[in-house]
Structure formats: C-alpha cells, structure tokens
Design brief:
Elements lengths: L2 H7 L5 H9 L3 E3 L2 E2 L13 E3 L2 E2 L8 E6 L16 H4 L8 E2 L8 E7 L2 H8 L7 E7 L6 H9 L2 E2 L2 E2 L4 E6 L2 E6 L6 H8 L4 E9 L2 E2 L8 E3 L2 H10 L9
Parallel strand pairs: 7-13
Antiparallel strand pairs: 1-2, 1-3, 3-4, 5-7, 5-15, 6-7, 8-12, 8-13, 9-10, 11-12, 13-14
Helix pairs in contact: 1-2
The structure holds uracil.
C-alpha cells in the first residue's frame, strides 16, 4: 500500500494531507526518513510520524449524524460555534466530517476516522450522489425551471452537471447531485428565481437519513460501511 494511503488508513490525516506530511520529511519507515508518498509499505516495517509509531486501527468507525442548523461541519470553528465533531462522542478517535454542509443546512452528515474513505466519498471522480430536500420561495416551481435545474445552469464557477430534480409538493424540491460545489443547491435554486428557505440532506450515496432525529447520531453497521465503500470504489456508483 502507498505510504500516504497507509497514513490515511491509520487516521493520521486525509490522504492529501498525509502526502504533505511525508513530503515535509516527518515520516520514517524502518527508521529512515521517506519523502515519497508513493513508497510501498506492507505494515511489516515500523512507520512513524514525528517519531511516534503509527498503527493502522483494526477497525474504522463511521457515524451518521442528523446535523442541526447552526452547527458547522468543519472540525474546528474560528468563531466558536459548535461543530459536528463535538456532537459525536467517540473517545480516542479522530473523526473527520465527510464533506461539508452549510451551517444553516440540516440533515445527513457522515463522520469517520478513515481519512481514505472520507476522501473517496467526496472526490468528484466517484460522483457519489447526494440528495437534498429544498423548500424554496415563490412556489410552485414551473416545469421550465425544473428542466433548467435538471439539465444544468451556469453558475459563476461554471455550469452544473445534470441532476435529478422533482417537485415533491408546491415549492418543495428534491434534488440529487453528483457534485458538491460550495452552496450549490442554494445557488442553483436562486439562479432559477427560487431562493432556498430551508435545506436538508436526506441521502448520501446508498445511505438515507431515515428517521434519525435532529442532533442524533448512530454508528453505521459493517454492512452499511461496506455499501459506502462500494459506492466510492468505482466511478458512477451510488444510490440504490
Ligand atoms: N448545497 C448547498 O447549497 N448547501 C449545502 O449545505 C449543501 C449543498
């Protein structure tokens, strides 16, 4: 396994951050500094970061959290707001949020100590679908606007990819996106003249929020984690 991947698996950092740590000369394999993140390691030689030995955790954890509004999904907040990591009690484990939700967005967010899985689930290459329910202003939304949202609209950072969009009831849209640009749902809806009043994520790849109460957390079963890994293993896989 590549050294950077080994470090990500061990929960040291995300794969990209692990590459930087290696390049900085902070990592030794069998006592020798290695600066090549692609160096092959098989676990038989001791790996250390900043002189501390790294062990690959026997088992990774993945949690699903129903994020309430007002909580931020970064690991730390410079404004002192509560973070999603603080809502999950998992002593001795360093958890990473899988992607981001805006502070005012509610719904399903995953947290894991598996930096490699977190990376894959959010990497555009794997196009893991995410489904949102958006309550918008000025409903009902006309067919023309729905079609524009489905086909793609041109935002200031480029056109959006085709999306699944349907109107569940007047002014309430369900949108399934295979990309995850900043405030994308809000910007798309605003673009077609229907600013978002409330936004919630109801599914991430094969996982649904279901009846998990707002603020509640549950650990995913091994079978659910496997389905997530499968969704992030090959391009163009995911829901269903
Ligand atoms: N799109 C948004 O606009 N906000 C989110 O939090 C997630 C997707």
């Amino acid at each position: 396994m590549r050294l950077a991947k080994f470090l990500a698996h061990a929960g040291v950092a995300s794969r990209r951050a692990a590459e930087a740590i290696v390049a900085e000369g902070r990592v030794t394999v069998a006592g020798e500094i290695v600066r090549d993140p692609a160096r092959d390691v098989d676990g038989s030689e001791p790996v250390a970061v900043d002189r501390r030995t790294v062990r690959v955790a026997a088992e990774h954890v993945v949690y699903a959290l129903h994020k309430p509004a007002g909580v931020v999904s970064t690991a730390k907040d410079t404004h002192g707001r509560r973070t999603v990591v603080e809502l999950v009690r998992s002593p001795g484990t360093r958890l990473y949020p899988v992607g981001r939700l805006d502070a005012d967005t509610t719904g399903l967010i995953l947290l894991t100590d598996d930096g490699d899985l977190a990376n894959r689930l959010t990497h555009p290459r794997y196009e893991v679908p995410k489904t949102y329910v958006a309550e918008v202003e000025g409903g009902p939304v006309r067919e023309r606007a729905l079609r524009a949202l489905r086909d793609g609209v041109v935002l200031d950072d480029g056109p959006t990819a085709p999306a699944g969009v349907r109107q569940l009831r007047s002014g309430v849209l369900e949108l399934t996106l295979r990309e995850g640009r900043k405030r994308q749902v809000r910007r798309m809806c605003e673009h077609v003249g229907h600013p978002v009043k409330r936004l919630s994520r109801v599914a991430f790849g094969p996982l649904r929020l279901g009846d998990l109460a707002e603020g509640a957390v549950r650990r995913l079963s091994p079978a659910e984690v496997q389905r997530l890994r499968d969704a992030a293993a090959r391009p163009d896989r995911g829901q269903g």
